[in-house]
Every structure is written in structure tokens, then in C-alpha cells.
Design goal:
single chain; 123 residues; mainly alpha
């Protein structure tokens, strides 16, 4: 889901001004482990460019409510660091993918051992 969610994130940033960090958080709530490493950095790097492209293109018809007003997408995004560019996080998720894979391997090994014990008991 990494590539698919990355593309969805670019779309959400461009058309709805959905901040990259918020989108990554939302996608991980929906699908834990999605958007890791390079994809996460890419989304953060592309945020300002997507916001700019979204401002340059006229709003598609599905983004209006029929009365001509927008859906209330924000016109600006707060920057907690006060600096331009990529938002910096106090904690990184370096190694998150490896931790998830290790937990999965551990779960499968534990399950295999319990199945082996059941087979021996039945013999």
C-alpha cells in the first residue's frame, strides 16, 4: 500500500490542502505500517509543491456545493516549527518497517511451535 497511499496523499494535498504529516498519520491509523521511509520523506518534500499546484489549477466542479462556495478547505497550513520546508518531527520512525516484519516473524514462529506441540501430543 505504500505507493498507492503516496499517490492518494499527493492528490489530497493538491486538491484538499491535506498536510503531509496529517495524511501520513491518518493512513497509518487506517493501515498500520503504510507510508514508510522514502515514501514518507517524499510526501513531506512534495507538500508545498502540491499546495502550489492546487492553488494554480481551478477547482473542479465536484469541489463546490452548488452555490459556488468551496467545501471549506483551509487556505493556510500552520507550520509548528516556524521554518519553511519540511516539517521536522521530534521522533522518527526509522526502522519501523523492520520492527513490524520482526513482530510478524515472531508471531508466525510462535504459532508454528504451538502447532508442532499439538501434533506431538496427538502422536
Amino acid at each position: 500500500l505504500g505507493r498507492t497511499v503516496t499517490l492518494m496523499g499527493l492528490y489530497a494535498m493538491k486538491h484538499f490542502r491535506f498536510p503531509a504529516r496529517a495524511f501520513i498519520g491518518w493512513s497509518r491509523i487506517c493501515r498500520p505500517g503504510s507510508v514508510l521511509g522514502p515514501q514518507q520523506r517524499y510526501l513531506c518534500e512534495m507538500q508545498e509543491e502540491m499546495f502550489t499546484l492546487g492553488r494554480l489549477e481551478p477547482n473542479p466542479t465536484y469541489m463546490s456545493t452548488g452555490s459556488g462556495d468551496s467545501l471549506g478547505t483551509p487556505t493556510s497550513v500552520s507550520n509548528p516549527t516556524g521554518r519553511q520546508g519540511i516539517f521536522e518531527e521530534p521522533f522518527t520512525d526509522i526502522g519501523q518497517g523492520e520492527r513490524l516484519c520482526a513482530a510478524r516473524r515472531h508471531h508466525h514462529l510462535k504459532k508454528a511451535k504451538s502447532l508442532t506441540r499439538l501434533v506431538k501430543e496427538d502422536s
